[in-house]
Backbone:
């Protein structure tokens, strides 16, 4: 995965997590999503292109792990954002996704 593709995907991941902030979601889900949002926000704030790809993949792996704990948010729109964020996180954190 090229640096610009990685940066774009992490940015999209973060946008989907941000989109859940104003949604009426259940407390348990909010906790997991909030932690995932913080990690993704740190990556975006640090500048993905300035970080080693392995570091980005590892941190996004933590995001994927956190989001795997969310079965439902209690809000269909938030559920869609979480599902998309989870798919992006899984794709980003998979080793050898075109980084050659």
Residues:
């Amino acid at each position: 995965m090229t640096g610009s593709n990685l940066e774009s995907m992490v940015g999209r991941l973060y946008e989907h997590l941000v989109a859940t902030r104003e949604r009426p979601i259940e407390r348990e889900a909010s906790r997991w999503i909030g932690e995932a949002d913080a990690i993704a926000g740190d990556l975006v704030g640090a500048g993905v292109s300035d970080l080693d790809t392995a570091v980005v993949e590892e941190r996004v792996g933590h995001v994927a792990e956190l989001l795997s704990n969310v079965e439902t948010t209690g809000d269909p729109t938030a559920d869609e954002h979480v599902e998309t964020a989870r798919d992006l996180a899984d794709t980003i954190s998979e080793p050898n996704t075109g980084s050659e």
Notes: The chain is about 70% helix and 0% strand. Helices lie at 3-18, 27-46, 53-67, 76-93. The CA atoms of residues 55 and 88 lie 16 Å apart.
